[in-house]
Amino acid sequence: xxxxxxxxxxxxxxxxxxxxxxxxxxxxxxxxxxxxxxxxxxxxxxxxxxxxxxxxxxxxxxxxxxxxxxxxxxxxxxxxxxxxxxxxxxxxxxxxxxxxxxxxxxxxxxxxxxxxxxxxxxxxxxxxxxxxxxxxxxxxxxxxxxxxxxxxxxxxxxxxxxxxxxxxxxxxxxxxxxxxxxxxxxxxxxxxxxxxxxxxxxxxxxxxxxxxxxxxxxxxxxxxxxxxxxxxxxxxxxxxxxxxxxxxxxxxxxxxxxxxxxxxxxxxxxxxxxxxxxx
Length: 279
Ligand code: C2E
Ligand code: CA
Ligand code: CA
Ligand code: CA
Known about the structure:
Layout: H1 2-34, E1 39-48, E2 54-64, E3 70-71, H2 73-83, H3 86-106, E4 113-117, H4 120-124, H5 128-139, E5 146-151, H6 152-157, H7 159-171, E6 175-181, H8 188-193, E7 198-201, H9 203-207, H10 212-229, E8 232-236, H11 241-249, E9 254-256, E10 264-265, H12 266-277
Parallel strand pairs: 2-4, 4-5, 5-6, 6-7, 7-8, 8-9
Antiparallel strand pairs: 1-2, 1-9, 1-10, 2-3
Helix pairs in contact: 1-2, 3-5
The structure holds ligand C2E and calcium ion (3 copies).
């Protein structure tokens, strides 16, 4: 019995320690958003499968806590979402990504599409749409060069206000992708109503392409669904030439993954792009 009570004390101590660590992490993240150096965007190329052309990049957030080791986005983004800090963090990401695509356009590294991840709490905040509108108007970026990635679960929340917000974003010349598609449970009737441009096949179904019996039918179904709805389909997490070959056979339009490149800092991405374009 005494051991049980000890176990509980250990458990609540561990909970308290975890809570304290989360608070410390959020404080540091808040400071990083105000500061200049600890947050950085990495860029992972997206490839058009029929031509091999690089058609865009996905911006992926990296945080070096205290300038030291990277903290994984899977770790700090959910915390930022729960605490509301995602609104400021998302605004930081939007500004950094738009500044980068603006700079690339200005320097003649043009025709790339910048895909930016948007979380639910950020999307829902009253400041989101006005912020995007202001930035897009101010930078006067060419239409079609910015895409927002929303997740399938978010797309399901729905209804009228979502459709309206997406419509206004599209009127600004932005395109919309549904991320992690296939992992949630979209109603197809509802999907058809959403003004979206692209479906991103969840990595799990791309990984499963290496095991034909389990995963192949789902990737194929998403590609066919995209075609039926007039949406572009992109596969993420493509790691092997075999997966790529299968995607080409199914006539999936685009792909992204370690097979082509890992997410890279801007300067490294530029070097990668230049090396790839050599004859
Ligand atoms: P996601 O949007 O689904 O991003 C794809 C993740 O898969 C990225 O992880 C990317 O580095 C990784 N990945 C890309 N290719 C491959 C591959 O071939 N194999 C494998 N195993 N992984 C691959 P990352 O950068 O760690 O980001 C994790 C998640 O954090 C993202 O998932 C996204 O949900 C979130 N995230 C990242 N940056 C942002 C951001 O700026 N804003 C928001 N709201 N969320 C972000
Ligand atoms: Ca994404
Ligand atoms: Ca994804
Ligand atoms: Ca994901």
